[in-house]
Amino acid sequence: MKKIGLTTTVPIEVLLSAGYTPIDLNNIFVGSKDYSKYIDIAEKDGFPKSLCAWIKGIYGACISNDIKEIVGVHDGDCSNTKALTEVLSMKGIKVYPFSYPSSHNINDVKDELDAFMNLFHVTLNQVEKIRTRLNKLRELGIEIDKLTFEDNKATALENHIWQISFSDLNGDIDAFNSDLIKTIADIKKREASSSKLRLGYIGVPPMTPDIYEFVTNFDAKIVYNEVQREFAFPRSSKAKDIYEQYFDYTYPYDVYFRIDEISRQIEERHIDGIIHYTQAFCYRAVQDIVIKEKLRVPVINIEGDRLNHLDARTKLRLEAFLDMLLDSKEGIF
């Protein structure tokens, strides 16, 4: 199968129907032991220092991994993606555009998906057959999530890694399915381990995965990964078709739609506080104003840039936030 790069989660049902192997360039970039080389490639080719590290990392990952075709999401993700795809197109990479309509109207979503299917010459019937197959796999994503917040057996990092991997299924559906089944079986054998503080993580997946381990030093556990969970499409089996599934996908639409689902998860998972992660130079940082106003639990906003680990200042801020939550929970305030 031909490889096709992704700048973010897109309807992979269409790509799989067309005989492609989707490759999430974000996962290649952040998952690399030498991730900074991808940023360096972009800056060497003229990308400015004052641009989001994610965009530069995606560019470097695409150039370095022999990706000849990509899907670029021009509306509903990073505001810099269109410029990124223009540069990649200049480099000879074929770009297929896709957008999540800012109107968030079901008819507009249908039009975009129909155009995307036409672009790859596949039918709705073909796509729905793949969707049915993926829905069974996505049930495993729901299971590992419940093992995190209900059974307290899966770690927050495992929750993050497996759910984020649903964006491209690690490039192999069958292997991904087998690996996830084995992982779930192993996790179920563990003893439950609870923490005093239950945290939610919202915003784009972190450049700094050590955050999951760091919070455990304060008797805390992240039991909700907002965007990663959305990548796994936990409500897909309830959608009657692919149009409803991508209409219900919260990440690409307005912040109020996201907040509705975040609020439901805060209540269901008994979350004490929220860590809102944003990337430097990203417009989503402004949405923190709305998030802090609308959510009914304390929120801390932390910002990442080029580092793949928490810096000292961020650790101090997180420590103070978690101490405050613990004091509040124990009735000191």
UniProtKB/TrEMBL annotation:
Domain of life of the source: Bacteria
Signal peptide: none
Gene Ontology MF annotations: hydro-lyase activity; iron-sulfur cluster binding
Gene3D superfamilies in the record: 3.40.50.11890, 3.40.50.11900
Cofactor: [4Fe-4S] cluster
Keywords attached to this entry: Iron, Iron-sulfur, Metal-binding
InterPro entries to which the protein is assigned, alphabetical: FldB/FldC_alpha/beta
Family per similarity comment: Belongs to the FldB/FldC dehydratase alpha/beta subunit family.
Protein name as catalogued: Possible subunit of benzoyl-CoA reductase/2-hydroxyglutaryl-CoA dehydratase
Species annotation: Clostridium acetobutylicum (strain ATCC 824 / DSM 792 / JCM 1419 / IAM 19013 / LMG 5710 / NBRC 13948 / NRRL B-527 / VKM B-1787 / 2291 / W)
